[in-house]
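[INFO] parsing input record for Cytidine/deoxycytidylate deaminase family protein
[DEBUG] input buffer:
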Amino acid sequence: MQRKDWDTYFMDIAFMASTRSQCGRRHVGAVLVQGKKLLGTAYNGAPMGVPDCSEAGCMLVEEYEVKKTDVGEELVKKQRCVRTIHAEQNLLLFTDREDREGSTVYVTDQPCWTCANMLANSGVTEIVFHRAYPKDSEKVEALMKARGISFRRIGAYEPPPGTITEVTQ
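[DEBUG] output buffer:
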């Protein structure tokens, strides 16, 4: 058996963390790494002690965003659950700022705009993800470039068996 490279190893751990999620729409896991040292894991879900989506249902809100295109403007409808704290947000809540300085976040899914903003101010210098999140992709990539944060997708990656759930946008 061939030894896994570090990206695969840490992404596997992020996918394992995602199995703790009770979200019916998307299971997301995130890990914080400094060098080769694992400093924290997190997943998306309701706040502690509060019924989660599997118990109380999703709290979906619809938002509209104006997106500029080559031919004008386009109104884009977005739907999100406000019951759930995202994996990246939980990771930031449960790790120390000193540990995040110069570190890498491995996350199963490309961060949304809100999480990208939070990560951009968190001290991390690299974000590695597997699944794309097209709704916010362009502006998140532009933000990371502007902040000088390495932002890369691992495309040729196979998550561990039993960790993938059906993803709904």
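[INFO] Residues 91 and 153 are 19 Å apart (CA to CA).
[INFO] shutting down worker
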